[in-house]
Each structure stands twice: as C-alpha cells, then as structure tokens.
C-alpha cells in the first residue's frame, strides 16, 4: 500500500493538517502536499479510469506531465474538470471526484470496453464512419458518447474573477530550477530587466530531490542563496505559481499565474494571464522522464522512477513497500537508493542494458539491492494494484524467468528535454543519439523581426542532464540573452556542480524488445488516450507514415497532456514499424499552451458588467429611468420604444407614431455619426466619396448623400451640411460612424495623400435630438433664444448655429419622418439638460419620446430607404430608384465604374417597389416573392424579396418595401409573398411612398 | 454653462489605487503640419507650451499639448476656456491648411493615483508602464480593455486616462475591477 513515511517530506508543513475529500471520502493531508501526494498518503492509489477502456489508473508522474490523475475539482461555481492532482496544491476543504467512470471508480461498467479492446483498434472512430451511415448515428455515436470523455462540463457560472497583465522585459526566463536561477542571475547582473517565472510554488526544480553538491555545499543552500540574491536585485522579478504557457512571434510570451488555486478563500483574481513582450526568452523548462513500454505498465502502482523519488523526498510518501525498479539508465538507481534509505524494500533493479550501470549501480549494490543487468519486465501482474512482476530477458520475446512479488514498479526510459516553448515559434530540434532524445538545435532557433534568435534554452531543456553541465549552460544562456538584449556582460565562472560518472543509457522502446502481439496489446504508450504499442504498429501497417497522421489516427499525444509522456516513445515505435531512423519520423507540432489554461484567464476581466463596452448617449440614463425597451445598435443601446404601463411594444410604437404625426415627438439621435471634413480639397474629396455632387452645396445648406464602395454597392447614407467654404459636416448612420471615418482616412492616407483634406470624428461631441411633428416649431420657439426657426428663417434643408434657450445649438431642418422636423445638436454635456427642457416645453403638446421602431415605421411610410434594410451589401443605388442622387456631371466617384458594368446596369436586377397586401396584413420579415416553377434544387423560384415590412398605424394596414424583378414597371401587379406556414399572401405592387407623397408636411 | 455635466458626474473609487472622474475638461483636436512655424506659434499662443515630440505631452501656463499622430495634436485646457482656445488656434492657423475642432464634450477623463496606479493600468492597456518607460510628460494612445483611450503622466505622479464619453461607464467599471483589493500585483 501507499502511505505516509515518518521521514522525508521537505515541502510539507507537518504542523498544519489539511482536510479534503475525494469521491465523498474524507481524508487528511499536510500543508505543502499536492492532491496526488495526499491521496497516495491515504492509500488512494487508483485516481481515475482510462479514456477508452476504463482501465483503473493511478498517478504515474509528479508534475505537469501527469496523464492519469485528473479530477473534477470543486463544486458549483468553482467546479472545474480535468485538474491534475500532481499540480494541485492541497488546501483545507478541497473536494474533488474522479473522472470517467460509471457508476463508481471501484466498480465501472465501462471496463467492458477493456475486454472488447479488439473491437476498438487504432482509428476506431474513422472506421465507424466507413460503416453504413445509419450505424454511426444509431450504434457507434451513442456508445462513444457514453464511454469516452474525461471530466464533466461545468454547469454553473464561474464564481471567480480573472485578469490580464501586460509587462515588458529584456529577458524572460521560464523555469525556476537551478538552470533558470543561474540564467536569471547572469542576465540580472548584466543589468537587464528580468522576469523569472516558475510553475510550481517552490524554487530549484528537481535538484533538491536529485541531490548533488554545488561548490561543495548542499544544492538546497545554493538555491536559497541564489533566490535571495535575485530577490535583492531591483531589475529582477520573481514569480512562482506562474507557467510559461506559450511563446509567440516578436518576443510575445504568455505567463499563466495561478493566484488562488492553492487558497480559494483569498480575495482577488483566481488566475492572471501575463501578456509579456520580451527581447529575449530563455526556456529553462527542464526535462521529463519517459515511461518504458512493457505489458501492464498502466496498472496502478507503476510510476516514473523520478516521480516515486519526488513523493518520498518532497512529501514523505511511499508508493509501495516493495518496489521493483526497471530502467535503461543510471538515473533510476537514485530512486532505488532513496527508497532503501527510507527503509523500503527494493527486491530488484532490472537494468535493460546488458552491461548494467555505473557508479550509482555500484552504490545500489553496496546498499544490498539486487541488480539484474540485461533484464526487463515481461508483464506486470495485478488489476487495480500491482501485485508482482514477471521478469524476462530484454533481448528475448518475454519468456518468464522469474516472478517477483511487489506492490510498486518504478520505471525510467530516459529523459526528454521540455522543448515546447522553444518549438512554439519554430525552434527546430535535433536527435541526440547518445541520450536518445530530441533536443533544441541552437543553430535553428526561433527568429524575430530582425532575423535574429529570440528564444534560447538553459539547463536540461538544452539537453545536458548533469548538474555541472546544467549550471554552466544556465549561466551561459543568461549571459547570451542579456547580450542579445543589448547589455554588456562580464563573463563569470559558473559554480561547480558535483559530477557522477554515469554509464550512457541504451534506448529501450519496447520491453522485451521482441515482445509479441499479446504483450504489445498491453504495453501502453499514451495513458490518457489509451494508445498502445499495438495501435501504433497497426497504424503503420495501415499506411500511416506521417507522424502527424498517426497522431490523429491513433489519438496518440492528444487531449489535456498533449503526449508529454508518450510522444517520444510513440514516434520511436512508429519509426521502428516503418523501419526508419527516429529523426526521419520527427515529432508532431508543439503548440501553446504548455498545459491547459483556464478559459477565465483567456477572457480576463471581460465578464458581467464589463463583458463588452456599452455605449451610452448623454440621455441614456433618462431612457433607462423611463422604461425604454432597448435594442442593440453596434455597441450602443438605443430605445426601441418606450412602453407605458401595461402597453405592448407594438402598442407603444403605434402611440409614439400617432403622437408624432399629430403633435410632436422627440428622438435621441445622438448616435448618428458626425464627421468634419475640412480643407481646400474637401469639396473635391466629398464628390469622390458620395454619388451626389457635394462641392456645389452652399454654406448653410444640407444635402442628403449616398456613399458607395468601390464595387458600386451602397454602404452608407446621411445628410451633409456645408459649414463654410472649406468645411463640411457629414452625418453617417449610427453603425457607420467609425467605419466611414476610417474609410475616408484610408482614401486620404493611401490614395489621395496629396489632397489637402483633414477629417475629425466628432460624433460624441454632440447630443443630437430630433424634434418632430406639426408642433415642433412651437416647442422650440417656447424655449426662446435668438435662433429664428421660422419657415423662412430656417428653411427645409438648411442649418443654423445659435442659441435655443440657453443652449449652444446647431439646428438642422431635415426630416426622416416626413413631418416638420428639426435635428438639434448641442454639446454632449448639455444634452440631458436640453432633453429635459424640450420635455418641459412640450408638455402642453403632450410631447413624448419615440424609439427606433417608430423612426423605422415613419420613414417606411415615406418610402425612405434604410441602410441595412434596403441594402445588404449587394444593392446599388439604381436598384433603389435613386438615380436622382447620382450625379451625371461628375467625372468620377467611388463606385461609378463598377455601376457601369453589364450586370449592374442590367434591367434584370431586382428593384425597389412598395407593396400592399390585399387583406391589409403585414408581410413576414424576410419573405420572398415567389414565382412559377422550381429551380434545379427543387426549390420554389423567386422574383424578389421584402426589405422593410411594418404595420402602419397612420394607414392602419401593413405596408412594405421590397426588391422585385422589374421594379416599378410592375406597378399594380399582384404578387405572392411566402409565409412561414408554407402559404402565401397576395400583395399589390405600389408606389413606396405611402404617406404625404408631395412632401407638404415637412415643408411648412 | 451650468447645465454642462460630465459623463459620470465626478464618480470615484478607492481601491488599491484611487480612480476619479475629473469632470469636464477642454480638449481640442488640431490637425495640420506639426513641423510648421505657424503650428508651433498657434500651440504656444493657445497654451504657452512647446510643441511636443512623439509620445509626449508638454504643458504651459494655459494648458497642455499632446502628440497624437504625425499630423494631430490634442490641446488640453480648462473646459470653460475651450471655445476661446478654439478661436485662438483657428485664428493663428487661418493661413495654413489645418483643422481645429472642439471635442471637449466627446470625452471623459479619469485620474489614477496611489502607489499601485501603474499596476491598475497595466491590467488594461498593452503599454509599458514601468517607471523607466513611462512618467510625467509621456502619453500613449492605446486602449483600455476593449475601447480606445489615451493615458498621460502628470507632474504630481498621477496618471490621466481619456476615453470617449459614451464608454465612460465602461472605462470606470474596468478601472474599478482592476483596482479591486485582492488584485494587487506588486509589480511596478
């Protein structure tokens, strides 16, 4: 059984006991434990079920590479699936459950898949697609959905908050092991602004566990001293619990800081995503031990040798009483020695190398441990727990020489540098024959804008595995990074690390090397995705030669661990099956993030109130206080209508229209775009931007204009006012303000850079209020002030500056409703007061605000088009019978040439007309005008479509505009619009101007 | 002018840094040839300040001038002085091709003060706010979370953020969230 030892546990605070629960069972651990170490201490070896076969799985690693020990963490708003027990710091009250089992971890029906493994070979999903189509839907999909998958999806809103943080450094060092500490110190001493980040809560990485001396002293002391030195440097920032998640172009690097995962009761954000610009990045990310591929290597109790050592040294936890160590290198002997030193039994060390190990092997033997060279494991015995191993010759096919009872197996297949961050931006790898691993190729580093490298590696991440080499490499990397960032380095000597004489490893990709199909089917490569040696061999046999294809076909290296343990073993097996050297196979692509980061961290602060910016006019608060029903228009919220009492929206809209047409209404039009265009060439410029002639407009006058893009399509409209000889003010649609301003600047900066024109977007400078209706003038006159707003004083399509009441106003005599109408702009800061004053002055006329829907209906009654209703990016002004707004005198304007093309000039285009249903009903939004017959796809032929359709309270009937083949030539034709229920409604083609055809009402 | 109110009417928040809406401020967009003698003279006449270079804001006895782009300045004066300053600038530039526009009402202004003010802003704007890179007289046109904004450093060490008036509430809200106790970064 696994249990807590009386000795060891350098990371624990044994004075502080911590309570937690796993699958409802109450356990205790110590402060400083990880969830994994605490579970082991409570003899909870089995921590989950596997993805595909639902096999019992225990923890196999001790860090970020862990594939098995994933749990559903927390409850309700704090629930999060797929949390690694090995990187979860224990805290009081932690609750978690194991994943992927039903009904329970101990008894799981899904394990039936294990016995049906032959039916679930590599490429199982793809093969099911080849079956009859119905089989996927009715047979395979339900089975796969029931049995596959890891954690549960959260159901509640995330209770935590998150944030981003932008920071800038000369040198960023990722990884706080001895190499990272050295690199940070070297760069810091050169004067560089340095960030050193470490994903765990403690410094020094593996070194304190692996031991060795630095300059004759304990490595722990060296770490403490160096951290203290770094802490004292003003130009160095140390952050732990912060992972280097990804490296991107131009020295961009993401740091994922976990602030309260270890203490959820702390105030403040849970995660902080650091978005960093660095001149140089040093990845001191260490190395990860590889498992060995032998039958039963996934049975709980089989663990990486280094992890087993970590649990003993860091957490005072033993994985078993009797541990068999199996290895192809010297490093695993350290585990055997550590176990023995803790009073645990190591019945045998199986060394796959025929010649055995070096100095460490001698030390193990001296400690009384039996060592067998050239031997391996034929198979591990046990189900939910290791009960023993069968020993064989590594060179053979697995004939059992001896069985040894044990309850744990420590395995080591060698070490692979963590090259992820190096590779994210294109750093290349080379195959190191001697150490049997891919390591960064310093000659092919990721390069920045200047073609120079911006990422380097330090320590075991570079390849060297011995302490002395690691210290030297760390120092050199730090110095080189500082130099590349523009600092002068005074070369220093690295501290001297203790050297052990180690015998090189011998690659061991399958144990025994001649293992037959039966053993290969139980030799796991990828624990998380249940991929075995036999699956990769099958993929190769079925023609999958590319490692990327094999990954997708077998799922090797997918999911939350992205193959941190399985990649190298998998591609070695693939290389063997393809009979090619490993470098010829290569690796799959390393993509960010290094380990999964929370969605919350990506979203940052953007949630709830600040999920998205909401734009508010100066009168927004009044709208809100007066029951406005809002609709989104861009990031604005505009009142759609102002329902009063129990009134429906439709009733409110009708009331607002009747009031406006009969007396007077108010519209908050502040959102309309307002762009100043000024300069000697402003008139010439606007002649190009608009289809109309704008240069002939007289100061004091307004003109309605259309704007097309260079393909001829109508993109915006609005009223242009000429302020003076050199200055125009262009109104745009609400949604068009920023876009049209950008459009103007684009042409001015990129095409007509020699024209003397400046623009300024002054949309928000003004609150603009439309006072509309037969009593509009009376209301304005009641406010007093010096401005003459009489019919003669301010004629239709004129504007004027002056005082209305006390307000600094600019009044435009324009109308989008067909009524007598003034749009009055005042400085935004005076907007609310002006609105209040108008409401007060209009009381005797029962003045009331109207919303965007009333605005829409009134303009439709007048046959005015609306950008976004009558236009959709495929409509040209000619389609809308607006030839009157297209100047024939101008040599050119944007869109002119496009509108001359055959298709644009064709008589066959759908053109604007009005429609009245025979029964007075409202045509459904989006309806098509059907035609005889069907098209090649069996769909009903169409000859047009509705673009605007409303109930008109003024006419008490449905009115509509639409585009129809033939346009106004079809006058008086009766056509049919389709309806959602499959029927149609008959409508007559009419003039789209339904109300006040002669325009008398607006011109009083 | 007593009717004129700023977007949030002087709201404040005391977190691990202090956030205040400062109230109305006179702001004038000036576009033209920044290298011309006329422009330098116009700016001097309006504010008493020298012409700022890239990413700088200069100040004089009547106001400040910020560099906004190679052909754009922002003149900052008292709100009540805005119209008069527009007139001064317009007059001084009457023989040049230039655009002068009062944008005082299109904006909201927030002041950030306190030791951790840099950390608050660094959560929201992709700008190097370290003391080596940003201090009094510096300005950056950037963004605050999802909206456009500019930030400058004042002589008293405080920072001021300007944004469009319509998003004043959003900017105040994100500043408030970022200055919330518990969220201290301890970096700058």
Short description:
The complex is a heterodimer of chains A (1004) and B (188). Chain A contains 27 helices and 51 strands.
Largest interface: A-B, 52 and 52 residues
Question: Structural class, from helix and strand content of chain B?
Answer: alpha+beta
Oligomeric composition of the shown chains:
heterodimer
Whole-number radius of gyration of chain A? 38 Å
Structural class of the secondary elements of chain A?
Answer: alpha+beta
What is the CATH class designation of the largest domain in chain B? Alpha Beta
Number of helices of chain B: 4
- The portion of residues assigned to helices of chain A is 10-25%
- Biggest sheet statistics of chain A: 7 strands, mixed
- Described by the principal axes of the CA atoms, the overall outline of chain A is elongated
User: Overall mean pLDDT score of chain B?
Assistant: 97
Based on the coordinates given, report the CATH architecture of the largest domain in chain A: 2-Layer Sandwich
Relative helix content of chain B: 10-25%
List low-pLDDT spans of chain A. Answer: none
Strand order of the largest sheet of chain B: 1-2-8-11-10-9
Say which CATH homologous superfamily of the largest domain in chain B is assigned. Probable tRNA modification gtpase trme, domain 1
Q: CATH topology of the largest domain in chain A, which one?
A: Gyrase A, domain 2
Query: What is the rounded distance between the termini of chain A?
Result: 97 Å
Strand content of chain B: 25-35%
Give the CATH topology of the largest domain in chain B.
Gyrase A, domain 2
Could you please describe the fold and organization of this structure?
- The complex is a heterodimer of chains A (1004) and B (188).
- Chain A is of the alpha+beta class and 1004 residues long.
- Chain A is 24% helix and 28% strand.
- Chain A contains 27 helices and 51 strands.
- In chain A, helix 5 packs parallel to helix 12, helix 8 (305-315) packs parallel to helix 9 and helix 14 (533-541) packs across helix 16 (567-578).
- Chain A is elongated.
- The mean pLDDT of chain A is 95.
- Chain B has 188 residues and is of the alpha+beta class.
- Chain B folds into 2 domains: 12-23 and 107-178, Gyrase A, domain 2 (2-Layer Sandwich), CATH 3.30.1360; 26-105, 2-Layer Sandwich (Alpha-Beta Plaits), CATH 3.30.70.
- In chain B, 21% of the residues lie in helices and 31% in strands.
- In chain B, the strands form 2 sheets. Chain B has a 6-stranded antiparallel β-sheet.
- In chain B, a hairpin with a 3-residue loop joins strand 1 and strand 2 (18-21).
- Chain B is globular.
- The interface between A and B is large, with 52 and 52 residues.
């Amino acid at each position: 059984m696994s249990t807590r030892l009386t000795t060891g546990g350098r990371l624990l605070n044994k004075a502080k006991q911590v309570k937690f629960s796993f699958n409802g069972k109450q356990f205790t651990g110590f402060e400083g434990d990880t969830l994994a170490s605490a579970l082991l201490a409570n003899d909870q070896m089995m921590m989950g079920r596997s993805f595909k076969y639902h096999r019992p799985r225990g923890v196999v690693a001790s860090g970020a590479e862990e594939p098995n020990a994933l749990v559903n963490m927390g409850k309700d708003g704090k629930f999060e699936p797929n949390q690694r027990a090995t990187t979860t710091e224990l805290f009081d009250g932690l609750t978690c459950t194991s994943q992927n089992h039903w009904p329970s971890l101990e008894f799981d029906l899904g394990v039936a898949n294990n016995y049906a493994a032959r039916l679930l070979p590599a490429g199982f999903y793809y093969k099911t697609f080849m079956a009859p189509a119905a089989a996927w839907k009715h047979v395979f999909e339900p089975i796969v959905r029931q049995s596959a998958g890891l954690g549960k999806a959260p159901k509640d809103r995330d209770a935590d908050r998150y944030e981003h943080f932008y920071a800038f450094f000369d040198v960023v060092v990722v990884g706080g092991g001895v190499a990272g500490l050295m690199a940070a110190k070297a760069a810091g001493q050169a004067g560089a602004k340095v960030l050193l980040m470490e994903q765990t809560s403690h410094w020094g990485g593996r070194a304190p566990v692996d031991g060795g001396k630095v300059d004759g002293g304990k490595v722990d002391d060296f770490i403490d001293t160096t951290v203290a030195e770094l802490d004292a440097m003003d130009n160095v920032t140390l952050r732990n619990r912060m992972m280097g998640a990804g490296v991107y172009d131009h020295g961009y690097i993401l740091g994922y800081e976990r602030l309260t995962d270890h203490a959820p009761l702390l105030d403040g954000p849970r995660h902080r995503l650091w978005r960093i610009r660095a001149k140089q990045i040093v990845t001191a990310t260490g190395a990860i031990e590889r498992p060995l591929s032998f039958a039963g290597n996934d049975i709980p109790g089989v663990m990486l040798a280094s992890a087993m050592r970590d649990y003993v040294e860091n957490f005072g936890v033993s994985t078993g009483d009797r541990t068999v160590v199996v290895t192809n290198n010297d490093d695993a002997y350290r585990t055997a020695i550590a176990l023995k030193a803790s009073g645990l039994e190591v019945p045998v060390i199986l060394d796959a190398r025929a010649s055995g190990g070096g100095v460490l092997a001698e030390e193990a033997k001296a400690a009384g441990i039996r060592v067998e060279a050239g031997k391996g494991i034929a198979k591990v015995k046990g189900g939910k727990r290791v009960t023993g191993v069968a020993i064989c010759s590594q060179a053979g096919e697995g004939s059992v020489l001896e069985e040894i009872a044990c309850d744990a197996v420590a395995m080591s297949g060698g070490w692979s540098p963590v090259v992820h961050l190096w590779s994210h931006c294109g750093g290349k790898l080379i195959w190191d024959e001697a150490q049997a691993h891919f390591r960064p190729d310093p000659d092919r580093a990721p390069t920045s804008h200047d073609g120079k490298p911006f990422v380097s590696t330090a320590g075991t991440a570079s390849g060297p595995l011995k302490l002395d080499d690691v210290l030297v490499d760390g120092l050199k990397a730090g110095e080189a990074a500082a130099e590349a960032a523009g600092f002068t380095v005074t070369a220093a000597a690295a501290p001297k690390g203790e050297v052990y004489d180690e015998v090189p490893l011998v690659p061991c990709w399958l144990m025994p090397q001649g293992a037959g199909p039966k053993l290969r089917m139980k030799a796991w490569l990828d624990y998380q995705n249940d991929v075995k040696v036999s699956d990769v061999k099958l993929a190769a046999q079925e023609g999958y030669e590319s490692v990327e294809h094999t990954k997708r076909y077998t799922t090797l290296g997918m999911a939350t661990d992205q193959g941190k343990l399985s990649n190298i073993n998998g591609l070695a097996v693939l290389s063997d099956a393809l009979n090619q050297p490993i470098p010829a196979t290569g690796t799959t692509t390393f993509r960010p993030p290094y380990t999964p980061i929370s969605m919350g961290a990506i979203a940052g602060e953007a949630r709830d109130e600040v999920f998205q910016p909401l734009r508010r006019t100066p009168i927004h608060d009044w709208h809100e206080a007066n029951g406005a029903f809002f609709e989104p228009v861009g990031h604005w919220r505009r009142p759609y209508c102002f329902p009063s009492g129990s009134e429906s929206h439709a009733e409110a809209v009708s009331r607002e229209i009747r009031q406006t047409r009969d007396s007077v209404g108010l519209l908050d039009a502040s959102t309309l775009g307002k762009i100043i265009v000024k300069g000697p060439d402003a008139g010439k410029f606007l002649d190009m931007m608009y289809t109309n002639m704008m240069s002939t407009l007289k100061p004091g006058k307004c003109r309605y204009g259309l704007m097309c893009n260079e393909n001829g399509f109508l993109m915006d409209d609005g009223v242009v006012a000429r302020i003076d000889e050199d200055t125009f003010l262009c109104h745009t649609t609400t949604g068009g303000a920023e876009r049209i301003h950008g459009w103007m600047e684009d042409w001015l900066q990129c095409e007509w850079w020699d024209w003397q024109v400046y623009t300024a977007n002054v949309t928000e400078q003004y609150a603009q209020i439309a006072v509309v209706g037969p009593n509009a003038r009376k209301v304005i006159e009641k406010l007093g002030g010096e401005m003459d707003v009489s019919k003669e004083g301010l004629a239709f399509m004129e504007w004027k500056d002056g005082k209305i009441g006390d307000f600094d106003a600019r009044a435009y005599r324009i109308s989008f409703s067909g009524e007598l109408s003034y749009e009055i702009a005042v400085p935004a800061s005076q907007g609310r007061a002006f609105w209040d004053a108008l409401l007060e002055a209009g009381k005797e006329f029962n003045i009331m605000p109207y919303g965007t829907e009333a605005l829409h209906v009134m303009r439709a009654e007048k046959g005015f088009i609306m950008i976004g209703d009558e236009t959709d990016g495929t409509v040209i002004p000619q389609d809308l019978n607006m030839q009157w707004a297209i100047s024939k005198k101008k040599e050119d304007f944007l869109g002119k040439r496009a509108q001359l093309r055959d298709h644009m000039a064709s008589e066959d285009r759908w053109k604007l007309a009005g429609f009245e249903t025979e029964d007075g009903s409202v045509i459904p939004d989006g309806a098509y005008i059907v035609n005889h017959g069907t098209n090649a796809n069996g769909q009903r032929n169409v000859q047009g479509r509705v673009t605007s359709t409303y109930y008109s309270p003024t006419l008490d009937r449905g009115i509509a505009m639409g585009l129809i083949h033939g346009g106004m030539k079809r006058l008086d034709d009766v056509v049919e619009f389709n309806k959602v229920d499959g029927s149609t409604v008959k409508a007559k083609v009419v003039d789209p101007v339904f109300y006040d055809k002669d325009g008398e009402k607006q011109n009083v | 002018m007593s009717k004129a109110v700023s977007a949030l009417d002087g709201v404040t928040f005391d977190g691990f840094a202090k956030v205040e809406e400062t109230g109305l401020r006179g702001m004038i967009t000036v576009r033209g040839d920044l290298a011309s003698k006329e422009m330098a003279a116009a700016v001097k006449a309006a504010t008493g300040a020298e012409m700022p270079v890239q990413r700088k804001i200069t100040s004089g006895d009547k106001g400040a001038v910020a560099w906004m782009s190679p052909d754009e300045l922002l003149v900052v004066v008292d709100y009540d002085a805005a119209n008069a300053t527009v007139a001064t600038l317009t007059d001084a530039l009457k023989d040049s091709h230039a655009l002068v526009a009062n944008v005082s009402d299109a904006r909201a202004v927030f002041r950030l003060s306190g030791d951790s003010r840099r950390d608050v802003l660094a959560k929201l704007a992709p700008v190097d706010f370290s003391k080596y890179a940003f201090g009094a007289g510096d300005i950056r046109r950037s963004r605050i979370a999802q909206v456009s904004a500019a930030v400058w450093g004042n002589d008293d060490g405080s920072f001021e953020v300007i944004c469009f008036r319509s998003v004043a509430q959003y900017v105040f809200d994100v500043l408030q969230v970022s200055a919330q106790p518990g969220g201290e970064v301890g970096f700058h």
